[in-house]
Every structure is written in C-alpha cells, then in structure tokens.
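Quick question: what would this complex look like in 3D?
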Amino acid sequence: MLAAFLGFQLIRGVSPLLHTPLMSLTNAISAIAVVGAILITGEKDASALSRILGFSAVFLAVLNAVSGYLITDRMLKMFKRREPEKK
Amino acid sequence: MKLDDTLLPFLYMLAAMGFILAIKWMNSPATARRGVIVGEIGMILAVAGTLLRFEVVNYQWILVAFVLGTAAGIPIAYMMPMTAVPQRTAFSHACGALASALIGTAEYYKGVNQGTGLSGTVMTALVVETLLGFLTFTASLMAFGKLQEVLPQRPITYKGQNFVNLGIFAAAAGIGLTLIVAPERAVLFPVFAVMALLFGVLLIIPIGGADMPTVIALLNSYAGLSAAAMGFVLNNKMLIVAGALDGSSGFILAIIMCRAMNRSFSNVLFGAFGQLQTTVAASEARPYRSATAEEAASILDAARTVVVIPGYGMAVAQAQHKLREMFDMLGKRGVNVEFAIHPVAGRMPGHMNVLLAEADVPYDKLREMDDINPEMPNADVALIIGANDVVNPAAETDPKSPIAGMPIIQAYKARTVMVIKRSMNPGFAGIDNDLYYMPNTIMLFGDAKAFIASIVKELAAVGHAA
C-alpha cells in the first residue's frame, strides 16, 4: 500500500517526455520476479514440474531485466540538449 | 544460517530503495541515466542475496536460465529499432506476466502436493497473481500482434462481445474464488488458467491501434500488480514494493492517457471506435487546397515560428531523421522550430519523444500540449506530420463527434496549417477532420519521409540562390 502511494507520488513527477523510458524501466524492475523464480527453481526437493516452470520463469525474467535496462539506457542516451554539456 | 536473518532483509531493503530512486530520477533527462544504474545495482543486490539463501541449492538450472535470458535479452535491446519500442514493451509485458503466472502455478502445485501452507490469504494472492499474469500474457501478445501489424489493427467487434467477455471473466473469477475456499481441488486450476488466458485474448480483440497507449499502460500495471501479488504469496516485501511501483506507474500512465483522450477506462476497454466509420463515409468530397514541396519550402522559409506536430504517421514513415535535417536548416535561417507532442501521439506513452530524441532533436524543443497551445495563435506555420485526431477541431466544436471533449493541439489557430498526409482518407479513428478543409490549410500529399526530404532539398536550393 505504502509502495503504491509512493509510486503514485513518484510517477506524477515524471515528465511526459520520458514516459517511454519510464515504462521500460518499470518493466525491468518488475523483472525482480526473478527472485521468486530462483527460489522455486533452486529448492532442494523441487518437483520436476516446478523446476520446469521455475526455469522458464527465470529465463523470461532475466530476459526482461537485461533487455529492459539496456534499452532504457539506450533511449536515455539519446535525450540530450543541443550542446551536449556532458556525454 | 545467520546470513538469512540479517543480511538478506538488508539487501532487499537496499534493492527496494534502488528501485524507488531509479524512478525518482526519471524526473529529468539529466538524472535519468543515473536512475537506471541505481536500478541495476538494486536488482543485482537482490538477485545475489537470493542466490545466497540456504534453500537454494540447485544452481545449474538457474545458471542456464540466466545465460539464456541474457543471451536473448542483449540482442533484443540493441537491435530493436526505436519505432518498434511499443512492440518490445508489449512483448516484455508478456514475458514478465508469464514469468509471474508460471511462478504462481509452481507455488500452487508445490503447496497442494505438500499439503501445506495454502492459507486463505496466500491462496487469494496466488489467484490474483496467476489470473493477472495469464491474462496479461495473452493480452500483451495480442497487443504485440496488433502493433507489429501481424494482426489487423482495426477493432474487431461482434454482437454480444461485452457479454461474452464478462461471462468468461466471471467464470474465471468464480473458479478463482472456489480455489481460494478449497485449494485442494487441483482439477480446477488448469481450467482457471485457460479462462484467464482466453480472457486476455478477448479483451484486446476489440481495441483499436489508437487506444494502444492506454492499453499498454494498463497491461504494464497488471504485470506489476501480478508481481506484487507474488510478493504476498512468497511473503517477500521487496517484491511487493517493486510490483506496487510498477503497478501504480502503469496505472497512472493509463489515467493520463485516458484523460488526454477524454475517455474513461471502460470506454477504452469496451467501446471500440469501430462502428463509427459508416456515419462518416458519406460526408466526403469537400474542397481543399494542396501544394508541392517547393511551395511548402518557401512558406516555411518565410515563417518565423513553426510548430511541428508529429503523430504515428511520422513513426511509420521513419521520417524523424529527415525532420531533424529540416529542423536544422530552418534553425540556421533563424526560423524557430518547436515540436508539439500530444500525450497520446503514437502507439505508447512518450513514443514521439523517443523517436525525436533518436534523431537528435534537443529535448528542450519538445513541448507538451498544454504548454504550447497558448502560443499557437502566434505560430506562422503548424506542420502536421502523420497526426490526425489529436489536431481535429471537431473535438472542441462538435459535441456529437466521437472524440468530443478530447484535448487537442490547437493547430487550427496557427496562421497557416500544413498537413503531410498520404491521402484524404480519414485517420485511424475513422473520423473526418475539418481542419483539412479550412481556408488556411494546405495539404501536402505523399509519404512523410519522402516529402520532408524534398522540402529539405528545396530549402537547400533556396539557400544557394540567396
């Protein structure tokens, strides 16, 4: 609840200019689900079913995290002023 | 082990703080990249902490999945053209949602087989997680298909559609409730999953391309909420925080998009634009003016302020680089060129900004709708590229118009309006645009990229002559 409220306040502050990178960033953040996936997959006596499901989930979440962060960064690199003050 | 009791919560807390800071720093382009790095660090800490947990003993599969995921993720991030960002986002929602639905499924079967730990609260969270996860998965795939134009972008509607959709949703919810009360009835679980998957497909079928920004934002929110629900299942506060951040961010974006179109959620989800086409088709064949690139170039050259209003058409034609050339040439001649961005221009929130940034247009030249509208009467030229509904004056003047009340960029107030467009066909929403028939409007027919290229050529020629 608190996080949702905090989220509301934070997003309000983001200018529409950056909505697309914002969305891909939150996408990457939600890939933190990988934590849950690791717990399922890595358990000592996990059944074959949960191992398969967990394996796919780790794969999907890592894919999301990696591509999410990289593409966000790639997008943000392009936002610059006319005279680039810093790189 | 001591590690779990003290270090892990600490790591998770750091990770959650990293995510919050990451979003906070998205406030401004100057700090945004720092935000990404903080977010990455947060994620690495959380993953490392989790790997160190004592329950986790089986590393080989995790490792393989990590390698595969990274190997697939890097090319996606670097090869994806910026115009395809909406598709990628939809695809990424699908992945995230499926991951969380799969984890939910695994948790469920684990609980059932061991006959432990599926209390009412946990089961409620589990049902929410898998329901949202599965429906977001198929819905995002459908959205991806529509954005990639594998599927028809036109809304597909049929009689009793809302009834069927609601019926399926009610069935899924009903089974979900039964599972909460009696989690041991494992037969129901696959049925539940299929219902959720099916509902996701049906939800997106009637939604047209112009509403995609809202839908993507909403799916973003669902994927986040699904992750938050997983946090409740696993009793992991960091997951709850991250999921809630994601969920609320998607939700706010969806609200902003809806407000920018003066429509409600239910309207976007249940009322497709589709049926309106027939009423419009009759009122065509009115007189309009058109001009060549040469004439357009001389008008632009003579102007002092030009406001460019880009839309999805610019993205399709990949015209942003040529547009920037034009921007540079006009800038050298002392013409002040600015870009007016409507919140729902394009196929996802902020789509136009990313494309123009890609083409090296400085971001302080990108202006928001509310910001630029008061200045429109002072603009010599409003140049509209591939945008339609967002500049349609009918939104302000015709209360019967399907887009009535939608805030628009007031292009019609500029002294001259130029519209680059392929033909006189109505735009995506199928609504005729009075702007095209106004006396101070000039239609420029052609592919946006080719046309701007010839304007650039003409400008260069004028420059040499002078």
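Answer marked as accepted. Residues 85-114 of chain B form the longest helix (30 residues).
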